[in-house]
Amino acid sequence: MWENADRATVQAAFRAAALVVVLAWLFSDDVRAWVPIWVPIVLLLAAELEFVFRGRREAPRPAPSRIPPGPEDADLGFGEVVEDDDGIRFLPPPARPERRGRRLGWVVGAGIAAIIVLLAVRSDRGATWAVLSEEARTTAETRFTAEASRIAGKPVRIRCDEGYSFTGAGSDTLGIAFPGSGLAYLDPTICRALYDLAFAGDHRGDQRAADALVVLAHEAVHLAGERREGVTECLALQEAGPLALRLGMPEGTTRRILRTAFAERLSERTIIRAAYALPSSCRDGGALDRRPDDPRFPF
Ligand SMILES: [Zn+2]
Question: Which end of the chain offers a freer environment for a tag, N or C, measured as fewer CB atoms within 10 Å?
């Protein structure tokens, strides 16, 4: 079938399919969660390799013979000089035929480009905290404050660090707590993920949601007075479960993402994160197990 099919058609179809996969991968979190990054890369690489190898196997094209100028060269000034009884005059070439195919190609290309730009702008804006209305942000901060107070066991305050004054744009710090004043700041990306979870019903249960839940719980544990990072993280992993349920996440999803988050932290071995390493007592039945009767850990 591949030998008989028109090569150009197969190539075009394959490239279009690869483009669709890559776009879906770029703009859909669901696709990204299920398709590893190398799949679109391998798809495009396969298309290019096929192009090169079939081109090399094909018989070389005969050298083009000289073609005299024709009507399509009208814009280059091509015409004819004729001599008749009236004298010598210039005979312009016939009008250039309109190339509708090429124009259609441009229109389709521009349309696709516009759609890509629109999708990129939308996905970018949709994911930020700042794009939410002030009312939505205030409501969300009130809710986060209530949840943190519940975990801390005393009234504390949670603010979203809109100006990145404390968390730092692009830095690793996703939250910072000031136990003395009972106040913690969260990175705006964390606030947005929590907002999507609590107010927009986004219960996909991906790593983004797990991280956001653990960060809020982590700062709340700090505000309760715990300073040791490893202990704080261990308690936060356990508090994140009930927190997720209160924010509306289904129980099965919650247990799955927190098991993954726990496993990730156990396998963390970088020296930079050494202070955050979970203590060995952070296990089912360990000294840090807040629910010793429950064999499920951390939730
Ligand atoms: Zn901390």
Answer: N
Helix or strand holding residue 118 (H, E)? helix 100-126
* Residue 57 pLDDT class (50, 70, 90 cuts): confident
Dihedral, CA of residue 157, residue 161, residue 162 and residue 164, to nearest 10? 160
Bridge partners, 160 (sequence order)? 186
What residues contact 240, with CB distance under 8 A and at least 6 apart?
210, 213, 214, 216, 217, 258, 261, 298, 299
Name which of 78, 116, 110, 120 is nearest 96 in CA terms: 78
3-class SS of residue 66: coil
What is the per-residue pLDDT across 71-122, written as a single tens digit (0 to 9) for each? 667 667 677 778 888 888 877 777 766 666 677 888 888 998 898 888 777 6
Angle between helices 134-152 and 188-198 (to 10 degrees): 90
**Residue of 174, 151, 159 whose CA lies nearest to 220:** 151
Phi, psi of 205 (to 5 degrees): 65, 45
First to last CA, the chain: 54
C-alpha 154 – ligand 1 centre gap (Å) = 18
Q: How far is the CA of 144 from the centre of ligand 1 (A)?
A: 17
Q: How far is the CA of 173 from the centre of ligand 1 (A)?
A: 9
Q: What angle do CA 182, 249, 225 make, to 5 degrees?
A: 20
CA 147 to chain centroid, in Å, comes to 28
Q: Output b/e per residue, 150-186; b: 16+ Cβ within 10 A.
A: ebbeeebbbebbeeeebbeeeeeebbbbebeebbbbb
- Ligand 1 centroid–CA 196 distance in Å is 23
Question: How many angstroms separate the CA atoms of 90 and 72, rounded?
Answer: 18
